[in-house]
Amino acid sequence: MKPEPLPLPPSPNWYCARCSDAAPGGIFGFAARTSVFLVRVGPSAGANPGAPPFRVVGELVGHTERVSGFTFSHHPGQYNLCATSSDDGTVKIWDVETKSVVTEHTLHQHTISALHWSPTVKDLIVSGDEKGVVFCYWLNRNDSQHFFPEPRTIFCLTCSPHHEDLVAIGYKDGIVVIIDISKKGEVIHRLRGHDDEIHSIAWCPLSGEDCLPVNQEENSEEPDIPNGKLVAETPITKDCYLATGSKDQTIRIWSCSRGRGIMVLKLPFLKRRGGGVDPAVKERLWLTLHWPNNQPTQLVSSCFGGELLLWDLTQSWRRKYTLFSTSAEGQNHSRIIFNLCPLKTEDGKQLLLSTSMDRDVKCWDMTTLECCWTLPSLGGFAYSLAFSPVDVGCLAIGVGDGMIRVWNTLSIKNNYEVKSLWQGVKSKVTALCWHPNKEGCLAFGTDDGKVGLYDTCSNKPPQISSTYHKKTVYRLAWGPPVPPMSLGGEGDRPSLTLYSCGGEGIVLQHNPWKLSGEAFNINKLVRDTNSIRYKLPVHTEISWKGDGKVMALGNEDGSIEIFQVPNLKLLCTIQQHHKLVNAIVWHHEHGSRPELSCLIASGSNNAVIYVHNLRTVLESNPESPVTITEPFRTLSGHTAKVTSLAWSPHHDGRLVSACYDGTAQVWDALREEPLFNFRGHRGRLLCVAWSPVDPECIYSGADDFCVYRWLTSMQDHSRPPQGKKCVELEKKRLSQPKPKLKKKKKPTLRLPGKQDSSIVTEDESSRETSVPVENGVSDQDGEEEAQEPELPPSPVVPGEAVSCISVSLGNRNEKSKVTVNSKATSLKKEPPKEKPEALLKKRKARSMLPLSTSLDHRSKEELHRDCLVLATATHAKAELNEDVSADLEERFHLGLFTDRATLYRMMETEGKGHLESGHPELFHQLMLWKGDLKGVLQAAAERGELTDSLVAVAPVAGYSVWLWAVEAFAKQLCFQDQYVKAASYLLSIHKVYEAVDLLKSNHFYREAIAVAKARLRPEDPVLKDLYLSWGSILEKDGHYAIAAKCYLGATSAYDAAKVLARKGDAASLRTAAELASIAGESELAASLALRCAQELLLVKNWVGAQEALGLHESLQGQRLVFCLLELLCRHLEEKQPPEVRSPSSVYHQWATGSEGDLVQKVTGVWRNTFSVDTPEQCRAALKKLQDVKYPSATSNTPFRQLLLHVCHDLTLAILSQQTASWEEAVPALLQAVLRSYTSGNFTLMQEIYSAFLPSGCDYLRDKLGDLSLATAAFKSLEAFFIYGQLYEVWWSLCGLGPESSIWVKSTVPAEQREPEDSASAEDAEPAAAAAQPQSSPPSGPGLRLSGESERLLSACRELFSERHASLQASQRTVAEVQETLAEMIRQHQKSQLCKATANGPSRDDPGQEAEQAPSRPQSPSREESNAPVSLPELTRRLTEANKKIAEFPESIKAWPFPDVLECCLVLLHIGSQCPGAVNPEMQQQAEELLQKYGHTRAYRRYCQTLHT
Question: Which of these ranges, 12-21, 291-300, 1222-1231, has the smallest mean pLDDT?
Fold first, then answer.
């Protein structure tokens, strides 16, 4: 049985009455986001000995939104069936064995909030929604009924285990009803007593009401008259107890026969160890219940802080309960519990499973009340994975729920030994990195820019760096200190410091000894050390080499920069990616091949992974930075951005990548081959890590809230999905929930005293609503916490609910519904009708003194009284008495006729009236009448009611008041999002810098530049900063041309050229090259012009490529290379049939008109077109081209890239020949031949010989002489020349060669020859042809070899080199031993895996024995005896072979040589076809060589065939 990947699953959904359940026999399921995870519990789980008996066995995938309900069928024979409800409006019935949907229905028109599979009717599933509609669905007959017992929001429902027609329903407002579905949903009982949401309903496991010795009359808190509607003929057989748990902190036991409560249990406040009771604990309460089947006098309930209580119901006069897990500290849940479900295992154990807000699933033994095991889960994206280099097997996981998980992956007793770290985090953990030497020291970074250090070995809170990043922390890395931190003495500075890369594009260096100190931005050191005057790129990735001597920085523009410690000297820049770099990893340094430690792999937002070999750069330590544009290896296959990379610590050159296409891919980077592809995730992969212990084990995390542990050898696929498979995987990913917009609740719909859903979201859910940043972490459509759609449903007005339901249910002639519906209708207000324009125009202006005017229209008596009071006040000679003063205060409108103080009081009263009626402008006018302009402005500013007219009159109050008023109005305009107008007002008071900064901070860059350009000095640094800031934003958005103009405006032509080149097309590259050339950036111009020419080369636009190269004088050598490449392509195309030739090529005139051989054409064009004639010119071009190095070719090298590299070598050869430097010409020509040979392109190799050595190699031998240093290279070149012609002779005998008449003469007339089957040998591998010497038919008596062939065969003695045959035999022995060792390791791993899985499946599994016997894969080339070879024997062989190789001189090992044994086989086969054609002495020499060195598997079979 193939082991399933081990997942760390998503968290169970919150705030659902029933979203977990268990079936008899040991299968448990819980809803997590849009799916249901299944866990096998008990002996059949196949857990390791000593480990907890449970295992995650699968997932039910099909819903598109949150799963709100999950229930198993508890009927014998259909334990494999279960039902789910979801916010997508569907109820699905599943078969857990096949994990497929049996059927589904979409009857509900509103959000489903409750679900239960009837325990008495085997095919009945009951569900309820938030509008109060209940649906009964019968599975077998595909029938349904719906009821509407109450116009309220349903929170939970439970079917009776004793009576098939009874269903208990709990509502949001605390009402519980029991309905009879056989009587069209008639309400049997309406139970009132709770004051808040009903979270759980549990029926007593025993029918009747004799199990509880309760004095019902004394303990009842209900009135004598039962609530609700009682049916007169209610049968006595339906008597039963019912328990309900509510948010009002009480548990109530109800009697169904009486329809009243008989017991109330109040939850106790349990003081936690180490602290008091949380004051907000009541708001977070969720009270769930479980009534044990075999214990009717006991009841299990949750409590405030995650505790479980076992209540004793026999003593109703006092609250008696037992707390779960009192013996062990820390075993209880730490937060509220949502679901409890019982499970009976195969061995008879009674278990209880609980899900909680602390994201743990716990299993409890009901006998001992102790926790058996805990299944941890994740509540957010798995952003980062990191294995500890000290504590082997300790995996840290950075999660988007604000916690770090530390997983002990090597634990034998528990597969899920996970520790959660949450103190001091408080946001998404996006980056992790363990200290290389210090145990338990873990660095973490978050999405809000925080960097901290955790000591995982203690319970202390983390240390937080005082320097924050402005955006998300992309990557953390430990490395040696650099200045200024490295300038202290040995004891004053740490040996390693922490580097963090943030989303704003900078890398900070933190001192781990003093995180409270300021972190240093390394950009300053980079700029000072390398004398950089242009804008530094935006950094997105950092990676230190294992020896700590070199640091790599990845940038947003796709470039990778390599720096050397201690001063961060720039060694080279890798210009390969054209998009943001997400991952950079250095190869480990502990492999069998130390030279691989210089390999660096990188992935970006495009789908290609590049591997570069920096050995030459690191060893040469160049004085000036080198630019690398050619990769060492290219890994293609992914279809989306690559987010994470990891080298295998157990293999050489093996790499695993994580990608947004939903898969993880294992590569053989040296061979450019995909090996294994993992497709277990349902989302985009964000991180990947290779196990430091198991060579086949890999861990991966994704945005599906999962971390998977999987084995490479158990994967069915070898490469990422393409075409239809990719579409299917995308559909699978899209089944994840999409972020929803929050619905704003109307204030009038809130019910008093109810829980606001916002309370849940602040502290508990840690919902991730912020937009994820790039660097392969996530996208804007990505992360939305599972708990967002899982909040309690919002309060609903009953009238609204009935209105909606009455539409969907048709005519329901019930009085209660009609009454409520009419009330709901009466609550609706009709919108005010618009008045005609004519009426609006005739409307009078509002009075400035409306209150005084109204008081003057009172009764005659009041007006007369006003006159008397006014006369008394006017003619009083002394102070007014209290009565008159009181009258004046009451009759404030008299201030119009008395003194100024009274008038001010009247205007103040009128002003308050204007403000209360919503007319602040009238209040301002009154204040102006008083002359208090400053007060008017202050009052308007405080209320945010300043206007243009008020500010316009502000100068009347003075210059300082005007300045203050303008500033206040500008702030007010900013609050109203009128930033441009606010800036204009700031300019009016000459605050230019503030206006520019305001526009810039709100992204009005164009306006800000216009203002700064018009009002500031040209050399002001603010203007340059504006250009650079706007350019950076435009660059991120992909507006490269406008960004380039910004950089040009900032006098940074270098950055302008770089950003123009980011698009990567030929036109952009040419423009960027011209721009760099104009600005005097010669190196950049040359690099961009060369890239442009290479892009034009892909579309065969030779004219355009030469024009691009002509932009820069330093590319004269490259022009010669491209000229040779064009002539060679033209030469090869002319040899093809006309119908095969490419019509799209744009050749130069000189490429089509000249005659003669290829070398003459090349030198003629160089002389006439490029003016390269004299030896000095050739020598200058040769020197420039010798500085360019290309990687060696492989069988996967694209043909056009191969041609370019070959032509580069041929150009070096011709230039060396022109300068009479034959010692340099021969190695260059040999290098071109070797590229063709190693890439498997035999035709190209022969074309090189025919074009450049048409008369053989004798000419070069004469030029070199016998004492030349290039003699060894010449011998290799000559050997390959003979090797190629030898194959042509052999193929001519078989009728395969294109020019058979040169090598073979026929002695039979043409009309008498029999036709032979011929096959194209154009792409045939020479080694493959030589490996089948018996497959070709022997030549007939009518064929004989020509004189040319006989001369060639005599020259084959050069190929039969004893020393080369011995060296090649030793090399083959080393390769064979390494292959055998690798096979032994694979066999050992598979045998261990089979032993582990032999204990896993159940004993009654019929396929267990067959699965336990592993099928040993046989190598296709292995045909030897099965006698095993011991490890000492293999070590001895390897040592002897390496010793022999070391004894050979460097001249033999430096230059490749054709396979000697292969040439022997071909020669002997020619001799068998044409007897007498081969010298007997040569035949004997070939046989001796085969007999002496043909002992490896590659040649053993052919030697046996030859000798028999």
Answer: 1222-1231
